[in-house]
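Hi R.,

As promised on Friday, here is the backbone we talked about, encoded as structure tokens. Could you run it through your design pipeline when you get a chance and send me back a sequence?
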């Protein structure tokens, strides 16, 4: 089938020209439209994870890839998320009235392109019939910029520098572009104020990053920036990855839509990072079944809701999760709320020094116990894989777990296969000798040969405490998962006071992040309590 490509523009309501590439089959038949709106130059068309627009057009669709305002060749000033409601609404009305369109419109895209779908759909344009948002969040504070109250430093800074470099390129500012390009290849994490590097302040003083750093609480700024869901009700195919930094947002948005929508909501999560969506993430190969099936699935979805074809797999609410370990896809009628298995922390007080000293046990110890460890900002615990660091995914971390500033608790070898599916929480009783500190919890699989592979983690920033008082209970929500841990393998929970540079080093003092200098950072002594009086535990979703 021959595909015609052309470039066209829409003049939106305030006179701004938005440019788009249009791919369509050479036919007289009027066809539905698939729209993607994105800020990285429309020629890329998110082919880092999706098939090329030509492929989608060959399936019998008109495909429109548009540069958002102030990006690519579109007019206007780019301001993160600020114009996506009105520009998205105007664009949908435009593509619905193209001479070869049948006025049935669907949208697809991930990350920023996932957000443009929700902003546009929130205004209920008549022609928009369905969307396929992938790897995004409607809560930009809790599920995008921050996690557990901690700034997602590595992800936010890398993205801000990329956006700033593209702005410099469009302006023809070669000096700024070259400096930002260099910074993107070696993130500037060690300036005097480490979370606020000079290169970004110098070459993009108006970056959203500075606002995100300043607004470290879920205030009115985030409420105004995040999309509003009050009038949103469409069939949606939600797409996520176990090692994607926005997985929490994907799941929370899916659950929110299930609760408020009259239309089908489907969720699929693969063993993928933010990109690419392939069979190998980190150092683990999940097999051919893990290779992306999203393009084919999206066409089936669009055929159902834009062409009226019958695909039985979409007849009811469904959740499809890739189970790591068995390398198979599992189906659920809803997000799994399975029975829970609790493992308590137990120790001989040397769990930071010996891997056999800290234990995960199904029985709460009778005696109160404690482990003391020290967070040193000069050598913070480094991030390795997971969802908040690059490269993401699962890595062998036994050497990292040997550090004395990481406390580990390991179960006995499993007597039967363990299937986990859903949410994981860690409850820790803890004290510290500084008024603010962080807790990082990482859950891993320990193989019979002693190798250790992470598969879920969480992070929590804790402030305004009274140092060295009675232990307080803190909850850490780990990245949801679906995994099979084989018989004779063990589980391990690793706890530390840092995960740098995924998150900034906690300085131990109450000071705004944008003003915290490297020289301000304090050594923090932490104590984890376990046993009958302080039953620290991890709760696992058994399914």
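Update: got your reply. Pasting your designed sequence below so it's all in one thread:
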């Amino acid at each position: 089938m021959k595909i015609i490509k052309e470039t066209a523009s829409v003049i939106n309501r305030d006179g701004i020209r938005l440019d788009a590439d249009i791919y369509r089959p050479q036919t007289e038949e009027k066809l539905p439209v698939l729209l993607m709106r994105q800020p990285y130059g429309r020629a890329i068309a998110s082919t880092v994870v999706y098939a090329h627009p030509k492929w989608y057009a060959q399936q019998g669709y008109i495909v429109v890839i548009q540069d958002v305002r102030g990006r690519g060749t579109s007019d206007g000033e780019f301001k993160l998320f600020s114009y996506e409601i009105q520009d998205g609404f105007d664009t949908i009305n435009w593509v619905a009235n193209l001479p070869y369109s049948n006025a049935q419109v669907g949208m697809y895209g991930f990350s920023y392109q996932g957000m443009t779908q929700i902003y546009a759909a929130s205004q209920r344009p008549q022609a928009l019939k369905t969307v396929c948002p992938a790897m995004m969040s409607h809560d930009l504070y809790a599920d995008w910029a921050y996690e557990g109250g901690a700034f997602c430093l590595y992800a936010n800074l890398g993205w801000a520098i990329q956006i700033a470099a593209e702005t410099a390129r469009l302006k023809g500012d070669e000096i700024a572009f070259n400096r930002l390009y260099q910074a993107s290849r070696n993130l500037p994490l060690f300036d005097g104020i480490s979370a606020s590097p000079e290169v970004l302040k110098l070459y993009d003083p108006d970056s959203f990053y500075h606002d995100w750093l300043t607004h470290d609480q879920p205030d009115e700024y985030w409420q105004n920036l995040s999309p509003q869901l009050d009038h949103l009700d469409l069939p949606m195919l939600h797409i996520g990855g176990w090692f994607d930094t926005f997985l929490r947002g994907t799941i929370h948005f899916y659950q929110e839509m299930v609760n408020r929508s009259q239309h089908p909501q489907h969720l699929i999560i693969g063993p993928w990072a933010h990109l690419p969506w392939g069979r190998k993430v980190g150092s683990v190969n999940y097999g051919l079944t893990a290779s992306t099936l999203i393009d084919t699935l999206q066409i089936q979805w669009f055929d159902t809701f834009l062409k009226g074809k019958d695909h039985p797999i979409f007849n009811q609410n469904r959740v499809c999760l890739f189970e790591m370990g068995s390398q198979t896809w599992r189906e659920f009628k809803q997000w799994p709320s399975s029975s829970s298995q609790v493992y308590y922390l137990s120790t001989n007080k040397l769990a930071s020094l010996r891997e056999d000293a800290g234990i995960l046990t199904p029985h709460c110890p009778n005696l109160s116990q404690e482990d003391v460890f020290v967070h040193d900002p000069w050598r913070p615990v480094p991030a390795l894989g997971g969802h908040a660091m690059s490269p993401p995914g699962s890595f062998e971390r036994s050497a990292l777990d040997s550090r004395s500033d990481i406390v580990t608790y390991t179960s006995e070898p499993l007597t039967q296969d363990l299937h986990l599916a859903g949410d994981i929480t860690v409850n820790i009783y803890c004290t510290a000798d500084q008024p603010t500190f962080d807790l990082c919890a990482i859950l891993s699989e320990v193989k019979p040969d002693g190798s250790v592979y992470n598969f879920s983690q969480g992070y929590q920033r804790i402030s305004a405490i009274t140092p060295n008082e009675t232990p307080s209970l803190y909850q850490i929500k780990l990245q949801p998962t679906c995994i099979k841990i084989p018989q004779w393998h063990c589980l391990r929970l690793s706890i530390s006071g840092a995960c740098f540079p995924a998150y900034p080093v906690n300085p131990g003092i109450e000071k705004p992040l944008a003003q915290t200098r490297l020289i301000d950072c304090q050594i923090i002594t932490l104590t984890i309590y376990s046993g009958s009086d302080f039953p620290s535990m991890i709760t696992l979703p058994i399914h």
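One thing I noticed while checking it: The radius of gyration is 24 Å.

Thanks again,
M.
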